[in-house]
């Protein structure tokens, strides 16, 4: 097992991936997909929707690509990995500096603070741990914030025109969709609704004013009629 040194582990990985671009793309796609699944699972759980039981394999395979949030989280995770790698390198030099000093309580405390893994594998696992912890915190906080926004009547409003019926009498918030369902949230009944996609004839978006007016919703007329300014 290779001993850890002060060299950048992320730089070494980039050099390796530069020689093996296929491996890099496969790993990046896998991590991005897992990020998307992780985010979707937590977000929909806020509305009591077991999305993993409702989604098809194809939905899960594009979860990371279809949601910009997952891409943002993944890019942020790379930044966290680079920072943690730099911290290990900084700690390595400080640790060995304090190791050469006479034994004392302060020396022991500082060596604990600047502890670094003894092996290269340990450093890589530590960086991966930082990435996972960051992802969990980011996803948890963002999913909770986004669900709170929707429950506070802030989100994308639509009318659904379902087969053999008139359009819904009131707008609902569009949460997302799978291969088989369109998932919405009724702000009045405070309930999530799953509508089979084959029953939907139209999805009619509710128009909004410009950002200058703080995105206040224009009160829409009946679906199919022009919206009055």
Structural overview:
The protein is α+β, with helices and mostly antiparallel strands and 229 residues long. The chain is 53% helix and 13% strand. The chain has helices at 9-19, 21-45, 51-54, 57-61, 63-66, 68-99, 105-113, 120-151; strands at 157-162, 172-177, 181-186, 191-196, 200-205. Strands 4-3-2-1-5 form a five-stranded antiparallel beta sheet, with no helix packed on it. β2 (172-177) and β3 (181-186) form a beta hairpin. The model is unreliable at 210-229 (pLDDT under 50).
Structure keywords:
229 residues, alpha+beta, 53% helix, 13% strand
SSE diagram, text form:
Layout: H1 9-19, H2 21-45, H3 51-54, H4 57-61, H5 63-66, H6 68-99, H7 105-113, H8 120-151, E1 157-162, E2 172-177, E3 181-186, E4 191-196, E5 200-205
Helix pairs in contact: 2-6, 2-8, 6-7, 6-8
